[in-house]
Specification:
Elements: E1 2-7, H1 11-22, E2 27-33, H2 39-46, E3 50-53, H3 62-69, E4 78-82, H4 87-95, E5 100-103, H5 108-119, E6 124-125, H6 127-139, H7 147-157, H8 162-169, H9 173-187, H10 192-201
Parallel strand pairs: 1-2, 1-3, 3-4, 4-5, 5-6
Protein name: Two-component system, NarL family, response regulator DesR
Pfam families: GerE, Response_reg
Keywords: DNA-binding, Phosphoprotein
Length: about 210
Amino acid sequence: MIRVLIAEDHDLIRGALIALLSEEPDIRVVGEVNRGDAILPAVAESRPDVALLDIGLPGIDGLEAADRLRQLDRPPPVLILTSVGTQGNFERAMAAGVRGFLVKDAPAHRLTDAIRAVARGERVIDMELADDALDADADVDTNPLTPREVSVLAAVAAGEGIHQLSRRLGLSAHTVRNYLAAARLKTGGRTDEEAVRAAMVNGWLGVRTTAANG
């Protein structure tokens, strides 16, 4: 029996995944969470054989959670199920050691087959999604953030406050707030946390930016 943990913040999608996997005689859903920062505690409690993770999760995103799972003594293999196929996300997924990378609208049998393959230690990559991401970003760099905005958002993601960040960068708190305001505008985030999440989902904290200066 393959024990699966599901991390998905949309209730309808999470419910559909649970219903789908419950029909498989050799797969059992042993846990479900709707936040990225709930994944590690849930893994410790449920001991899944496979962690099925969305990327765009509140708290921390699925790729950051996958990277943190590697710190465990016996981490479960991670299968990413996503509709966000940017080059940045694909590269982050590979860097985080995920074993599977699938698109959400793949046929149901591809998902169940992928879970079985990942549980066996195999790697499963949706190459059409990966190729689309690489091709799209080969033609145009879609990151709207300047290098300084990237560094400020990355620091916020790491838990640094405005005053701590201003001291480290040698900037005034007012200037740091201006960078954050610009990043919120470009990402569509209403808060700094939403801006960080949007940047992570789009891979903007891990790819080259278009602007030369902040």
